[in-house]
Amino acid sequence: MRTPPGSMRPGGRTARVRAAVLRAAGDALVENGVHGLDLADVASRAQVGKTTVYRRWGSVPGLVADLLDDMAEQSLPRSDTGSLLGDLTANARLVQRTLADPRQGVLFKAVIAAATCDARTAEALNRFYATRIEEWAPCVEAAARRGEVPPDTDPREVIRAVSAPLYYRLLASGDPLDEDIAERAAAAAATAARAGIYASGTG
Q1: pLDDT digits (tens, 9 = 90+) for 127-142
Q2: Does the N terminus or the C terminus of the chain have fewer Cβ atoms within 10 A?
Q3: For the stretch 136-160, what's the b/e string if a residue is b when 16 or more beta carbons lie within 10 angstroms of its beta carbon?
C-alpha cells in the first residue's frame, strides 16, 4: 500500500528535511494563514528543492496534516502532581501558555481554520486532540482510584472540559487568555468531576 505523503518517520537526512519543511510551513502559516500557504514558498524557506516538497507532501492539506501530526509528537508529557486539581491545573496552564503564545496561538487558529474546509486536515486535527486527551486522561483515572471522583467518571470528558473554555477565548470571544483563567477552568472541571457531573448515567 502506498504511504501517504509526509507520513514517513525515517532518521538522517530525511528527518532533517522534514523538520526544516515543517518549521517553514509553521512560519508561513503564522505569517499568511492557510490561504497564503504555498508549497514553493515553503520549499524556499526550508532551503530544499520544490520537487522534494511536492513529492513528499503533494498538497497544502497534506503538509498541514503532517504539521499537526508533528505537533502531537512534540507535545509535552502530562504532569503527575498526586491530586486531580493539581494535574488539571498543570494541563490548563500548558494549554493556556500554548494558545497565548504569539506564534503557537496564531498557528492553532490557522490549522483549525484549515480543518473546517479540508477533510484530511480535520482528521489530523482530530488525531492531535485525541492524542492529547489520551495522554492526560490517566490523571482522572488515578483520581478515581484515590476516591477523589466517582469510579465511573469519564476521564476524557473531564480533560475536554478543562481546555474548552480556553479554546473558546482563542477562537470566539477574544477575551484575555491568562493564567488566572486557566486555573479557573481547571478548578471548575475538578469541582464538576468530584460532584459526579461526568459520571456515566448522569444527566
Answers
A1: 889 989 999 999 999 9
A2: N
A3: bbebbebbbeeebbbeebbbebbbb
Classify burial at 33, counting beta carbons within 10 Å of its beta carbon; exposed 0-12, middle 13-18, buried 19 or more.
middle
pLDDT in tens, 182-193: 999 999 999 999
Please give the share of the chain, as a percent, with pLDDT higher than 70. 93
Give the whole-angstrom CA distance, residue 94 versus residue 24. 24
- What residue ranges define each of the domains in the chain, with the CATH number in brackets? 13-71 (1.10.10.60), 77-194 (1.10.357.10)
**8 Å CB contact between 34 and 110:** yes
Rounded Cα gap, residues 64 and 60, in angstroms: 6
